[in-house]
Write a structure and sequence with these properties.
The structure holds 2 protein chains of 2 kinds.
Chain A: H1 20-24, E1 42-43, H2 63-76, E2 81-83, H3 88-105, E3 110-115, E4 118-123, E5 128-133, H4 144-149, E6 155-162, E7 165-172, H5 181-184, H6 189-192, H7 204-213, E8 221-230, H8 241-244, H9 256-259, E9 260-271, E10 278-288, H10 289-292, H11 296-308, H12 311-316, H13 323-331, H14 356-361
Antiparallel strand pairs in A: 1-8, 2-7, 3-4, 4-5, 6-7, 6-10, 8-9, 9-10
Chain B: E1 14-24, E2 29-36, E3 50-57, E4 60-67, E5 78-83, H1 91-98, E6 104-108, E7 122-128, H2 133-145, E8 148-155, H3 164-170, E9 175-179, H4 188-193, E10 199-204, H5 207-219, E11 227-230, E12 241-245, E13 250-254, H6 260-266, E14 285-295, H7 303-308, E15 311-312, E16 318-326
Parallel strand pairs in B: 7-8, 7-10, 8-9, 10-11, 12-16
Antiparallel strand pairs in B: 1-2, 1-6, 2-5, 3-4, 3-6, 12-13, 14-15, 14-16
Classes of the chains: A alpha+beta, B alpha/beta.
Amino acid sequence: MTIQFNTETFRDDYSFRNSDWAIKRFPFPFHEDSYMYSVNMEQHRGGPDGSVYEKRFDVDEHYVSEMQDRAIVLADDPLRCQSLPHMTLAGWDTLELIMVSKSEDYPDLFELHRDGNRWRWINKPMGIDHTFTFLDETTLPCGPLEYITRQAQGDYAVLDQRGDMLYMDAGMVTTQADWSLDFDIGMDFFEWHAPVPLAHEMGIFKRALKFLLNIQQGAPARRLNWTMTVNPLLDTSPENYHKWGIQKTSLTPENVGAKQHLRVELQTFYRLPRSNALLFPIRCYLIAFQDLVSIPKWGRRLHRVVRDLPDELATYKGFIANRPLMLDYLGRHDDGLPTSPGVWPDLDSEPPLQTQNDARSR
Amino acid sequence: MSAAPQKARAGAEKIDVIVSAVVPLNELVTRFEFTRADDKAFPPFSAGAHTVVEMRDGDRLRLNPYSLMSDPADSSLYAISVRRDDAGRGGSLFMHRSVKVGDRMKISYPVNLFPLDLRGRKHVFLAGGIGITPFMAMIAHLERMGGAWELHYACRNEALGTYVDQLTSRYPNKVHVYFDDRNQAIALEDLLDGQPLGTHVYVCGPKGMIDWVHATAAAHGWPDENVHSEEFLAPQPGKPFEVRLCRSDITIQVGESESLLEAMERCGVDAPFLCRGGACGQCETDVIEADGTFVHRDHWLDDEDHTSGKKIMPCVSRFVGKSLVLDR
């Protein structure tokens, strides 16, 4: 299919919008009417046609605008992309993986022509046609990690693996849910996860680390994570908290449907072949509550999840203060009917929202 | 999430290959080269990685790990070098006796349990015998990337010095060879003493050599993180024993010359594994009940786990006693 790329912003006037296509393929993260942490990993080997799980690196209607937003963030703060000296090879691994995947998965948008180490990369949506020498940094305008992740949606953490531990030794992080690469750079797996509540006590991170250390070449994995964001902001970084944190107080009963967004991360995990590092792409998808409730099953379920979430998690995810406002809105989209299992919209089989009139006439 | 649930298969992904060359190197060691059956390029691999080779030996499936020793930059072939072990369980004998050019085989995607520390300013390699193989790939990698290295290689004698000629002629100033039959030995203490800050040491060889290097380096104040080793354990034969697998709801017999993991696989149990040599931790299994003695041979579990009797690594460890029940 050909993708129509939106012209939109993730700041100032917030003109970001999801088309009907993007709404229906949104990676809704709740497979049942409640939520608790789990390692929830599965293999990343495709998914249903058209879903965000189908391709190795999903490209959607927000691609060009997201890349423009990333360029703005980097111009203000170059430390959003860092790579410790020993991670250059992992940067080349990342560049190769993304170029090969995108050119194979989206041949109408991306082309890669390889003649030995002489590579020609064509990125049609961004108007790039560049010939360079693989593994020779002097033939790129910047490091290989920065070069390719300026052309790929989502954040990228590149983790070095040494002695049964992972280290946050490189990354490109401009669309993050309130964490900082500049703060975490060089940290080990337990250090950078230290702020997460409850999960340590549950032994989640020990199990997750063990799983990640064993991710093998040719067998990538994925999981979803989620939080809440007021306004369709990609860059909810600690560095800019003074700019976006205050916006959380702008929510009113009138604007909550438009302003409040569910933010879902599709996290994938790849063993990089040359460096043996682990690539951790974190792709952010945003959806306004008013769009989400257009899928009746999702409206019902999100209300129940937000209502029943433990306070610690609502606090950690940054929406405890706005929860009553969110529940007032979501409650109007929950008629108490049961929901079908699994994450899919099930528009054909799930009944539309029953209004009070419907309920009376039955 | 379950967007598209797929059950993970045990072991790494497989590649269909054709044996493209069988090159005897000396009395004991033969190199096997593989090309892909689908004519595609092999995935790149990181130096130090191994592949698990599947051998169809009659109705028996053997799975042995071997270090990839070809140049990681050459995606047209993978190569391994196999030392014939006449007293072993038969995998290397099968490779030597039965594998011919043109044969189709399956090998796993590369798995690296012995990677270079890419922070290293210099890499010192210590090889004993067939332990040379991972260093062949590491040397090719560092030569390409301009990394500093030196190799100290102990062999039994000149005739069994696998790749000695190739290495000494290509890198005369970086390769140092020691022959046992000439009473030559690596002067490890002097060697460790003179290294610049940021040097990493890697050892691959017999267990005694690995222990010697770790102990000597520790005694000379080297941090553990800078001393790397790889030792693949071959499962050792032992007395047959019986195991109850409670999740699979079957009772199986482990034969004298098969491992517990192999016995599970033979009985159709899809048990997780990667290295099959007691190193990666993937096959770790909880013990529900045991009346007898464990013969732990892995170097994954710590001493506490070993004495607790609560865990076993079925790829290399065994059991002697009345009854054993595992959570598998």
